[in-house]
Amino acid sequence: MIKSINKLLLLTAVGVSGVAQAAWPEQPIRWVVPYPAGGGTDVIARTVAINLEKHLGKPLVIENRPGGGTSIGATAVANADPTGYVLGTADSGTLAFNPSLYKQLTYDPAKFTYLGGLARFPLVLAVPANSPYQKLEDLLEAARKEPGKLSASSAGAGSPHHLALERFKQLTNTDILHVPYRGAAPALQDLIGGRVDLMFADLGSGLPNIKAGKVRVLAVAVPERLANVLPDVPTMNEVGVDGFVAYAWQGLVGPGGLPQEVVEKVSADLLATLKDPEVSEKINAMGIETMPMTAGQFKAYSDKEREEWAKVIQAGNITLD
Q: N- or C-end of the chain: fewer Cβ atoms within 10 A?
């Protein structure tokens, strides 16, 4: 009788242990995107998710939670149970800009579990096709001759486009009027129409108009020339704006305290996905660069960007609340 009871207890313990050690994931995973469906961030998430879920073995369900300068989506991820079944896109606004732009945030960038990089959007300085400024030097000369006369559109106050403009103004000692819009599309339309003089556009939304000849690029805000799409356009460094680099970028995060085995699996599978030629070619075709990083590399990159952009935001006295 005692032997039977001991055997039963042993079998029960093995069963419980087997349940406790079941491999993650056991169910679909929610991927929170802090922007509306159809935009560049949403497209990146869906493109990556199709391949990533093959590695994970479970569906990735995209959930769009736009608003609040990405705070609504970021807060949803931050407040989720740390089981690995809620992850989310976090971009340069979420992780690098917002802590300096807002006095109070409903999430803490330092408390996310960082999982890896996703993509970065090169920024370029563009002017209307019929602009009188053929070179960046011409534009700078005009800006310095009549401070405040030139105007620049952006996707909104605190957007990567706006903050790239602010960094540009600080480095070149120029006064250019910032004109914020509700999104990159209307900002580009007014640039095309000549209602503003320039814009720091991201290639994710600007490339079709560049290829169509509706806008002209004077310089790229990245370290090297964009050989695949704009091989003849100089970098900012080449035209004398030393040290000017600006990307819009994004990665994948989860709530704080995710199990290490979840972090390791997602990070490894995400790296494999971004290195898949089919995925990288789709992303590169949009004028966007894949940004494969380990969990640790993405955390270090985000921390450095937050520190660098805090200086720009503070020097420009920019606040959003």
A: N
